[in-house]
Amino acid sequence: MIRLTIEPIDFAALTEAARRPDCGGVVLFLGTVRDLTDGRITTALDYEAYPGMAEKKLAEIEEETCRRWPVGAMALVHRLGCLGVGEISVAAAVSCPHRAEAFEACRFAIDRLKELVPIWKKENWADGSTEWVHPATSAK
Amino acid sequence: MKLHVRLFAGARDLAGADHVVVELPAGATVADLRARLVALCPRLAELAKRCAVAVDAEFAGDGDVLKDGAEIALLPPVSGG
């Protein structure tokens, strides 16, 4: 299951939905808004997406993850809009028969998401200035 | 052909618009589109070098030929998560 949402991410429900009787390992990754980046204080992050393409890429990552690992069920959810410090911006929940593959599959899914999916964050610094985050390593 | 190019995040802020209309001859490539975008909006020059171009919601290469009516987007380096 993949989703973009402006609502808070219910990670307990996502984790529960990823559970399967044949899967003994369930891994949940949460990305949350950090209060400090390179010594500067963040008050909030604004997230925006290119909606149609972001959903398409999330679905491709889900498909690729399920092809490479014996995934029972998985969820990839990214939140959009203005998020305060500590709020959850992204969640990846993956179940597999055994823990090693569940960790690997979840790691793969979140790494690919950060590399490929057209979503951007804007820092709202404590001094009132803002700045889009466009990392030096490119999208692809 | 007239192509509508969607702009996101830092690219939108630099251009001061969420899309631009670019006129290109038939057979133009993604590289031609990049050059025209920068000519229209010189402030995009630095960031555009690091941007990907999406055609119909898929990453496109600079040599890809553009078709009339395609949905095009300029995508700055992503920072989701």
Would you spell out the secondary-structure blueprint of this structure?
The complex is a heterodimer of chains A (140) and B (81).
Chain A: E1 2-5, H1 11-18, E2 25-32, E3 36-37, E4 40-49, H2 51-68, E5 73-79, E6 81-84, E7 88-96, H3 99-116, E8 119-125, E9 130-132
Parallel strand pairs in A: 1-5
Antiparallel strand pairs in A: 2-7, 3-4, 4-6, 4-8, 5-7, 8-9
Helix pairs in contact in A: 2-3
Chain B: E1 2-7, H1 9-15, E2 19-23, H2 30-40, H3 45-50, E3 52-55, E4 58-60, E5 72-75
Parallel strand pairs in B: 1-5
Antiparallel strand pairs in B: 1-2, 3-4, 3-5
Describe this structure as you would to a colleague.
The complex is a heterodimer of chains A (140) and B (81). With 140 residues, chain A is of the alpha+beta class. Chain A has one domain: Aldehyde Oxidoreductase, domain 3 (Alpha-Beta Complex). Helices cover 31% and strands 39% of the residues of chain A. Chain A has helices spanning 11-18, 51-68, 99-116, and strands at residues 2-5, 25-32, 36-37, 40-49, 73-79, 81-84, 88-96, 119-125, 130-132. In chain A, the strands form 2 sheets. In chain A, strands 3, 4, 6, 8 and 9 form a 5-stranded antiparallel β-sheet that branches. The longest helix of chain A is centred in the middle third of the chain and has 18 residues, at 51-68. Chain A is elongated. Chain A starts with a strand and ends in an 8-residue tail after the last strand. Chain B has a 5-stranded mixed β-sheet with strand order 2-1-5-3-4. Chain B contains 3 helices and 5 strands; from the N terminus they run E-H-E-H-H-E-E-E. The model of chain B has no long low-confidence stretch (mean pLDDT 96). Chains A and B meet through strand 4, helix 2, helix 3 and strand 8 of A and helix 1 of B.
Structural descriptors:
heterodimer, A: 140 residues, alpha+beta, Aldehyde Oxidoreductase, domain 3, four-stranded mixed sheet, B: 81 residues, Ubiquitin-like (UB roll), 30% helix, globular
